[in-house]
Amino acid sequence: MTAEAPAIENPARVRPRRRPRVWRGLVLTLAGLYFVVPLVASFVFTVHTPGQGISVQAYTGILGAEGFTDSLLLSLGLAAATIALVLLLAVPALVAVRLGAPRLRPVVEVLCMLPLVVPPIALVTGISTVLRWGPEHLSRTPLYQTFLAVQDENFPLVLVLAYTVLALPFVYRSLDAGLRAIDVPTLVEAARNCGASWFHVIGRVILPNLRTSLAGAAFLTLALVLGEFTIAALLGFQPFAVWIVTVSGAQARMSVAVSILSLLITWALLLLLSRAGNGTRTADAVAGAPSSSKDQS
Fold it and tell me: Which of 131, 147, 171, 190 has a 20 to 30 Å separation from 39 between CA atoms?
């Protein structure tokens, strides 16, 4: 009499465990509540007045508020100038290090990460000291006009320089990840062998492959400039973040309403950039599929 072999369960019928999905949903739900609940509470504060009911006056009066347009345009101009300057400095430097001196990459990384170590209050203290020292000791030199020009209230270039330093760590991480994803030496060598100049190599070969990284770096810089308060306030300028704090003393609901709108706009920009990056990769994959199939045939 032979012993019956134990029945082997069909692997196809084995259901995957759902515990990771449950924990993942629980964590995402808690994280969502952590961010959404304060926003909902802030929104209720802006539209509900005890004893008076619901009113949207805090939102309808934003455009007509004194200083809103000027401060917003100033912050957007500072953000555009900061993005242009930091990318102009970071992209050629990182490409040159990756091509000509890979051993200097740790040194460049440490230099770009230093703003994360130095507190903004220490940075603005050093900047204000230099700005006071310059006019006092260089009043008889051409640099005196330079110190005055960088402190122009209409467009303070000193804030652009300070924001460029603060944005370096985020821009470096974004661009470094993009450069690691592509074979830069091979692309540059192929372009140079075809007779392309270095200007065309950077503009027509390297930058198109870094579109997602450039968009990420630009977004992070924009968010930093729109939300930075310490440096601008201590130097005596009034961009958008400083205006929000200033108006909060007299119109608290309006300042909270402006903060909510600026946060929603920032999130919308992030979603658009992420969708643009995914759309670019999908389009490249679809465009490359027919050619690869033809090559195989």
Answer: 171
Give the Cα separation of 143 and 88 in Å (integer). Answer: 24
Radius of gyration of the chain (CA): 27
What is the full DSSP assignment across 157-213? HHHHHHHHHHHHHHHHHHHHHHHHTS-HHHHHHHHHHTT--HHHIIIIIIHHHTHHH
Q: How many CA atoms lie within 13 A of 207 on its CB side?
A: 12
CB-CB contact of 201 with 35 (8 Å): no
Which pair of tokens denotes residue 41? 């509470």
Q: For residue 184, give the nearest of 176, 172, 174, 173 by alpha carbon.
A: 176
CA distance 36 to 42: 10
Residue 155: closest CA among 224, 73, 259, 211: 73
Summarize pLDDT for 174-215 with one digit per residue, the tens.
Answer: 898 888 888 888 888 888 888 888 888 888 888 888 888 888
Confidence of residue 276 (pLDDT cuts 50, 70, 90): low
User: 3 exposed, middle or buried (CB, 10 Å; 0-12, 13-18, 19+)?
Assistant: exposed
Tell me if 54 sits within 8 A of 193, measured CB to CB.
Answer: no
Q: How far apart are CA 192 and CA 202, in angstroms?
A: 11
pTM score of the predicted model? 0.76
Q: Which two tokens stand for residue 20?
A: 């990771």
Pairwise pLDDT comparison (27 vs 284), residue with the higher score = 27
